[in-house]
Write a structure and sequence with these properties.
heterodimer, A: mainly beta, four-stranded antiparallel sheet, 11 strands, 0% helix, 56% strand, B: mainly beta
């Protein structure tokens, strides 16, 4: 497989559940990102990892917990979410931690919290 | 406060004509700008970019223009084709580079009419 792969594509979870989103990239990129896209809002950066180190956490609630075990994999662990957390969660990667490089995005996980 | 604004949620253009998508930004620290295209159920894909040292970048049917004094950029697609129907996101990067991620607009839904 090539590109950025996200699983699952769709997820419905209750507010007391714990689930994880997975992202995998086969591009040899060194930086990975989680973005959130809510209805009628811009994509919002959540977390940035460079060489497996978290370098950015954009004031994201602690009910979202990222994990980057290696440069190819990125997880987003979810627990005790709220209905307003329902959104499209996009993973992206870029070659280096530099400006000007276009990101490669996955297809996203459509999350619904009930 | 939204730093990247796409004020037209949707735009309808006849096939073969020119499509012009607009984007305004407020942060003068942005120095690299990108356009992404997104089909339903897919992640955004990189389309074209421009550095702040340029005022125009062309790639086939796609041209991006940058007016730094007005903090405005536009994407021109000519001629427009049915496959161009998608949501187009404007994004900007600052001198923080990848650490700050990309700041996105809300997107413009382009509809190409046959």
């Amino acid at each position: 497989e090539t590109g950025v792969t996200q699983t699952p594509r769709h997820l419905v979870m209750g507010m007391t559940n714990k689930k994880s989103l997975k992202c995998e990239q086969h591009l040899g990129h060194n930086a990975m990102y989680w973005y959130k896209q809510s209805a009628k809002k811009p994509l919002e950066l959540m977390f940035v990892y460079s060489l497996e180190e978290r370098v950015e956490n954009n004031s994201v609630p602690s009910r979202f917990s990222p994990e980057c075990p290696n440069s190819s994999h990125l997880f987003l662990h979810l627990h005790t979410l709220q209905p307003e957390d329902s959104a499209l969660y996009l993973c992206a990667s870029s070659q280096e931690f530099l400006q000007g490089y276009g990101y490669t995005f996955g297809s996203g996980t459509r999350l619904t919290v009930v | 406060d939204q730093q990247v604004k796409q004020n037209s949620p949707s735009l309808s253009v006849q096939e073969g004509r020119i499509s012009i998508l607009n984007c305004d930004y407020t942060n003068s620290m942005f120095d690299y700008f990108l356009w992404y295209k997104k089909y339903p159920a897919e992640g955004p894909t990189f389309l074209i970019s421009i550095s702040s040292i340029k005022d125009k970048n062309e790639d086939g049917r796609f041209t991006v223009f940058l007016n730094k004094s007005a903090k405005h950029l536009s994407l021109h697609i000519v001629p427009s084709q049915p496959g161009d129907s998608a949501v187009y996101f404007c994004a900007a990067s600052g001198q923080g580079g990848g650490a700050d991620g990309l700041t996105f607009g809300k997107g413009t839904h382009l509809i190409i009419q046959p």
